[in-house]
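the two lines:
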Amino acid sequence: MAKNKITIQLAIAFILIIAGFILGRHFLHVISEDHTTLNLAEIQEARLELAELQKVREDIETDYKNLRKELNNLWYEVIDEDDTQQLELLEQLTRTRQIAGLTEVKGNGVIVTVNDKENYDPLEDPIESLIHDQNIIYLIDLLVNNGAQAISINDLRIVNSSHIFCIGTTVLCNNQRTIPPYKIKAIGPQEQLEAALAADPLYLKLQSEPYSVRFSVESVTDLVINEYETPGTIVKDIEYLKIVTDPEVQTKQSE
Amino acid sequence: MKIKNLIIKYGAITLIAVILGIALALQIKTSNVSDYESRDLTELQNNVRSYAEKNAELNDRNKELYNEIERLRNDQLEGNISYQDILAEQEKLSIFAGLTAVQNSGITVTLGMTGQSMITDSYIRFVVNELNALGAQAISINEQRKVATTEIRASSENIIINGVAFPRSEDFIIKAIVPPEQQDSIVLALETLKNALKEQIDSEQQIEMIISTESKVVIPGLNEDSIAYKTNLLNPVEEDE
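prediction for all of em together
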């Protein structure tokens, strides 16, 4: 009988401890309720601000395209039409701009979308369930090795000076923060790109349990890939590169 | 009577326990929702900041272009067209595109394997990607300039770089021009990468990685006809519109 009494008392003590815990949590939650309401208002405000900034970006991009077109046409207006040397120089400049990734291009290709595991829980899910810089660099290498001729990540064109690395939960590319889902566009031989992506062992593993990374590939006709957005930074991108004056080295490169 | 009392007691305790369980579950769910809201807000705020900064940068780019157009128009009116500008632009873009040979102080990494082992393409990519992430402005692998579309892939006993085959049994020499003030920290980062790669590989196949700083590194330019510059699948958007 005494044993029963002790059991009941222990059970009540246990329940009271849990009740104390819940009361404590609830108290803290009530205190932070104002903060949560504020959070929701802030989220709404940030969303509106972002939409406005996206609209401004579109206008800036349209202006840029018009200005670039105007400048290109203007050069052809001001040069002497009969001077083939001048015409060649302009054509060479156009070609260099294209191979440097400074022009918007169009062609058949693929869009690869990668994203973290849905409802990622840092306490339960493995770290591989999150998309890191290395996963993106790996995909770019895979696409390049299978013939991709132009690539962008979330519409940021990959050029020679593109550095990709993680900052917290975001990825920095071309000095711009970009967040998941990562849309990687590539123009290249579609079938080869699709086959390589479908058979890639790393992404096959990451898509399976327990990682469950979200991954999809879409073939697109006339896929448009943006030009490198910040030609103003080119001077900084090549700050430490001095032209080789040794004629032997210059000759060697073109062999 | 005693039994009835006991049943009531146990029943009450069970009921309280069930109610507390539900309350606990609800409480945890509510706090999880708050966590998600905070994360969403941080991400949104980061995005807003990033967009605003980038828009300012892009506006400056447009202003530069506008000024260039104005200058060219004025020169045209005054009959004073200077082709030096277009030549300078061509030179700058050639360096950026990797068409021109460049030099400066930098880092050399010699990568090889001990014994009969052959190097894999992924080790070369690890080093190149690390150098790239650390801010290298020009990179070459066995005198092949690395550009955005340079392939580095193994094919049987060779590694193909820009369409050129190099035997996997031989050392690969990777050169990079890096910001001079960051040379020491880049060497440290590469040493860390070396140790990480060594840990990945079993003891019978050891990777050899010699890292050195150089006062002069020469990186060749890539020929315009190289496979890495193939643009046969790319069409300019402007022409179609």
